[in-house]
């Protein structure tokens, strides 16, 4: 057995047992905070999307956070000081001074959408609509709300605690109602 590999496995297993939390950061500090969290050994998730922006002399493809002002981080809520001292971090979302975890499945669904290769965009938070399950394609197994906009179908996945959502175009044949 390789001692280093065993230590890495134990660290990964311990990290996976910790819950995800939404860390609120200063405006435009998402990438900086995510890098510092990673450097301090925390598992972090800061999903981005690409959008073309018009400059005075050219168009440029730029990356923007899917959840502006937030980075997701696995942490022990009883040991949050190392997170709160990261440059740009404002607070950890919660109620009554207690951090509240983000459900694991919401983070996993957002991660799958961001890594799918589909076009993903921020979307207004929606509480009404039909819940669907993707049965085929790169998002197989992801649940969300179905919307039709200008004849195109979109899957909307929400992070309830942040009251924010992301959307991606999908093929109507991929889904089934839940």
How is the topology of this model organized?
Blueprint: H1 3-17, E1 19-25, H2 30-39, E2 44-45, E3 48-54, E4 59-65, E5 70-75, H3 81-84, E6 89-92, E7 94-95, E8 98-99, E9 101-102, H4 104-115, E10 120-123, E11 130-134, E12 143-149, E13 152-159, E14 164-170, E15 175-177
Antiparallel strand pairs: 1-5, 1-6, 1-9, 2-5, 3-4, 7-8, 10-14, 11-12, 11-15, 12-13, 13-14
Tags for this model:
about 180 residues, alpha+beta, Alpha-Beta Plaits, SH3 type barrels, 2 domains, six-stranded antiparallel sheet, five-stranded antiparallel sheet, 4 helices, globular
Description:
This protein starts with a helix and ends with a strand. The chain has helices at 3-17, 30-39, 81-84, 104-115; strands at 19-25, 44-45, 48-54, 59-65, 70-75, 89-92, 94-95, 98-99, 101-102, 120-123, 130-134, 143-149, 152-159, 164-170, 175-177. The protein has two domains: 1-102, NusG, N-terminal domain (Alpha-Beta Plaits, 2-Layer Sandwich); 103-178, SH3 type barrels (Roll). The chain has 178 residues and is α+β, with helices and mostly antiparallel strands. The protein has four helices and 15 strands. The model has no long low-confidence stretch (mean pLDDT 88). The chain is globular, with a radius of gyration of 18 Å. The strands form four sheets. It has a six-stranded antiparallel β-sheet with strand order 10-14-13-12-11-15, covered by helices on one side. Strands 1, 2, 5, 6 and 9 form a five-stranded antiparallel β-sheet that branches.
